[in-house]
Amino acid sequence: MQPKSRVVVGLSGGVDSAVAAYLLKQQGHEVLAIFMKNWEDDDDSAYCASNVDFVDAAAVADVLGIELEHVNFAAEYKDRVFAEFLREYQAGRTPNPDVLCNAEIKFKAFLDHALRLGAQKIATGHYARVRGGEGQRYELLTGLDASKDQSYFLHRLTQAQLARTLFPLGGLKKAEVRRLAAEIGLPNAARKDSTGICFIGERPFREFLQRYLKQEPGPMLDERGREVGRHVGLSFYTLGQRQGLGIGGVKSGGGEHLPWFVARKEVERNVLRVVQGHDHPWLLARELHADDCNWIAGPPPPSARLSARTRYRQASAACRYEATPSGFALHFDAPQWAITPGQSAVLYDGEVCLGGGVIDAAA
What CA–CA distance (Å, rounded) separates 109 from 119? Predict the structure, then answer.
């Protein structure tokens, strides 16, 4: 049984954080809530309206009988997350801003604010678990609902951050969370889960990026060097992408019309390489190198057999992990599909998330 604490919950307007707050109250904690506003540029648009989320969060706080504070972290978000997001895209890589948002905003700016309010702990609606304390190192564990586990997004957290963090939903299935929300009469019980990056929302991704990055058109070449189309700029494509290529009419070796996929970016030549077929060899790799690492335990793990994910919606894949001077290398037992520079490679030892790094190259 955990000692009773003052806990500040990040209340987003969604059902997960609402049920997390409810569970903490049931456990007897003194619960305060904060709504984080992280984006301002076009917040009145149909795609990204945090005022709607705040109304939902306020309604939840009212039902639960907890105080809600509206805090603006937009300046910190723009400096620490969005600027890096644009830098990575300009370099032809595909970053994961949700990973950076957790490390820099939710578990740094938000945590600092909560501590100023006298909080002993913070809590979020993430599907993950924390184990340890009382003289032991803290460990980040996967959520018990494998289909919702969010440890991938949390792999840059530190011992100091985990020591202050509660994940009330870590041991629950999403269906149980929905059922609880309905049972206790939460006004957002039936609200569907949000998808996409918080500052982009549901809008078309390329349309959003074009407001911030200039277009530099160039050729799309197939594996034989034939020009099969034109791209609008390498920044607007990611490896493995199938939609929005605008290619048609070229058969592969006289065979059937297989779908086209982005396979490589040749940044110096401004060339986008595309191939036909989901399992084309250019889309498969057995090795990667990553840098810019974070290890939850502090020091990097010794070389070992582990498992890893190279994107969020992916099962862990068996691999051999090897530390390198600038990061680590992974050697997978089976080829991995569309390993993408800029994304995170996250390491696991069973249910324990060890940390990870940013993918630099794959082969």
Answer: 14
